[in-house]
Design goal:
With 300 residues, the protein is of the alpha/beta class. 47% of the residues lie in helices and 12% in strands. The protein is built from ten helices and seven strands. Strands 1-7-6-2-5-3-4 form a seven-stranded mixed β-sheet, sandwiched between helices.
Length: 300
């Protein structure tokens, strides 16, 4: 029910997680008896919700407002109901704290596998909704979990770049985020973070300095529809025989462009409409040339 009280919305999501099979936590341990796994799943989800709203969110609010000049733009774009894929740029470890604070309900977040090698870090990551993903590989389990999250209409958090940006500008994305959003049909919510990279530089800037951190929240969009509209606006040729503009590289660029649009210019990197359109044309031309060469080779 749209517009229902936030407590009721959270309660409904809590009950949903209890009813559905475990996606994170001790309930996944197949070596345990089914009954014990269910009990552990109930206990874990309950503890996760309690710690999220009564510990992690207040702690994130306190830290971010204490050590930074924290501001949020576009808060009205946060959906009250339903699931979506939240995508944002990655500047520092404080970005996870931003996501915890702003998420209207406990999200599930793709988190690098290395965190789960340490019991304490792995435990905290799980309480915050983290599930492991092995970067640089086709991690089928992480994709399976992600698709289950959006199917349940919960909130899925992904850093499309896959790692922190050393230059603080947008990097080339991994294809996973676009693949999940396009194949599931889930709505995507772009978030642009600016300034968290300066938190760890406070020693150089002055320990009492409170660097400004601005989080901009864009509007929900359908990735395939956004790609089609961009292709039409820029008169881009189709990428295949089906006459569509749905190759993952292009969809990934559109996803990053949506983040770039709400970031200050110095953070956007090479994600401008003109650059995205030109890269797409180059890929289509290279693909056509490759097909032509293969046809010539087969004739010879």
């Amino acid at each position: 029910m749209k517009g229902s009280p936030i407590v009721l919305r959270i309660w409904r999501e809590y009950l949903l997680e209890l009813r559905e099979p475990a996606l994170i936590g001790p309930g996944l341990n197949v070596n345990l008896p089914a009954g014990l796994r269910k009990v552990l799943h109930y206990l874990f989800i309950t503890f996760r919700y309690l710690t999220t709203f009564f510990f992690f969110k207040p702690l994130a609010w306190l830290i971010l407002h204490l050590i930074t000049d924290f501001r949020v733009k576009g808060r009205e774009n946060l959906p009250e109901e339903g699931g979506f894929v939240g995508t944002w740029n990655h500047l520092s470890n404080f970005d996870a704290m931003v996501g915890t604070l702003l998420s209207p309900r406990p999200p599930l977040v793709m988190t690098k596998y290395e965190y789960f090698k340490t019991p304490i870090l792995g435990g905290v990551a799980m309480l915050l909704g983290g599930f492991p993903v092995k970067r640089g590989t086709a991690d089928r389990q992480a994709v399976k979990t992600s698709l289950a999250v959006v199917k349940r209409k919960q909130i899925l958090g992904i850093y499309p770049e896959g790692t922190r940006s050393k230059t603080f500008q947008l990097q080339d994305p991994q294809p996973g985020a676009a693949m999940i959003a396009s194949s599931s049909g889930a709505q995507v919510l772009p978030l642009g973070i600016a300034g968290t990279e300066n938190i760890m530089r406070r020693k150089k800037l002055g320990f009492l300095t409170r660097p400004r951190v601005v989080v901009s929240i864009g509007k929900l969009y359908s990735l395939k529809e956004a790609a089609a509209a961009f292709a039409l606006e820029h008169n881009l040729p189709a990428s295949g025989k089906r006459g569509k503009h749905d190759d993952l590289d292009f969809l990934s660029d559109i996803m990053m462009l949506k983040i770039a649009e709400i970031l200050p210019p110095e953070y956007r990197g090479h994600f401008t409409p003109e650059a995205v359109a030109e890269r797409y044309r180059q890929r289509v031309a290279e693909k056509a040339s490759k097909v032509a060469n293969q046809e010539m080779t087969s004739l010879n």
